[in-house]
Amino acid sequence: MMNATPNTPQDKITLPKLIARKTEKRKITCLTAADYPFARLIDEAGIDLILVGDSLAMTRLGYSTTVPVSMTEMIIHLQAVRRAVQRAFLVADMPFGSYHVGQKVAMQNAVRLVKEGGAEAIKLEGGRKRARLVQRLVEAEIPVMGHIGLTPQSVHAMGGYKVQGKTPEQAQELIDDALTLQEIGVFSIVLEGIPQELAKEITTSLRIPTIGIGAGLHCDGQILVTEDLLGLTFAKAPKFVRRYANLQEIIREALHHFSEDCREENFPSAAESYSLDSTKASAR
After folding, report:
1. CA-CA-CA-CA dihedral for 134, 139, 140, 145, to nearest 10
2. Which superfamily, per CATH, for 9-248?
3. CB 82 within 8 Å of CB 118
4. Minimum mean pLDDT range among 7-21, 33-47, 169-183
């Protein structure tokens, strides 16, 4: 078993370090986190960027889409992750509705994610139609990560989770979105659910890093939802997910053994119980 190496201040992934990965041709690794234990393990594993994504609506809160999750719920999970993370760059999703009803409200919500939640940057979905808002956020010195292609908050408008940019016209729209976002100051762009050829074209045309999810190998970095990676989701996994473990099976087996041991009085054992001659011993 590998021992985690303690992080040092020099290891900390900052925004300039993250952006420099593109020119250094070093791939950026990214995962999602929604609580302290997972965030700590991900951070200690040396992942570069941790996203408190609105995907937690589905993976942790049981919603059928990302749309219902609230700012309050996002901040609670963000705060838990913030307590665990020392090295990785921490980004938080702006949930649906938090930036759709006016720039003033959007600015207030972005500030909350940074000030109350401890995020180092925020991510929001959409291309050129978000340009004015993104520009205001950048001017307020809140780092912004863009997100184009398959944007899950638009699931109803898109008619489901469908690959985007498949026609020449759609592809050009996404290229224009990416270039606009770059020019107004986003530090990176998530490319989700687009053909790998288009992702490669966008990546090579930008000065800033692209992070792919269902966008092929040629992006500057890759991100997955951690629960998908570990086999902790109940729905069918998307095509782009590689499951590196099946924790559902491990957890179910452990729960079954606990239940069995309780019924057969195999738990707790004498070694796991207190007695009168050990009352001064620590409870731990």
Report:
1. 40
2. Phosphoenolpyruvate-binding domains (3.20.20.60)
3. yes
4. 7-21
- Looking at residue 1, what is its pLDDT? 45
The C-alpha atoms of residue 152 and residue 71 are separated, in whole angstroms, by 17
**Both structure tokens of 120:** 């180092």
Sketch the domain layout of the chain as residue ranges: 9-248
- pLDDT at residue number 281: 59
188: three-class secondary structure by DSSP: strand
Peptide bond before residue 9 is cis, with ω within 30 degrees of 0: no
Count other C-beta atoms under 10 Å from residue 271's C-beta. 5
Q: How far apart are CA 185 and CA 144, in angstroms?
A: 8
Average pLDDT on 164-185 reads 98
Percent of the chain surpassing pLDDT 70: 94
User: Is 192 noted as a catalytic residue in this protein?
Assistant: yes
Q: What would the mean pLDDT of 259-268 be, rounded to a whole number?
A: 98
Q: Spell out the residues 6+ positions from residue 20 whose beta carbon is closer than 8 angstroms to its own.
A: none
Query: Are 147 and 122 spatial neighbours (Cβ–Cβ below 8 Å)?
Result: no
**From 73, 125, 192, 227, active-site residue:** 192
Distance CA 65, CA 136 (A): 28
pLDDT, residue 284, reads 72
CA distance 249 to 260: 16
Q: What is the pLDDT of residues 195-241, one digit of tens each?
A: 999 999 999 999 999 999 999 999 999 999 999 999 999 999 999 99
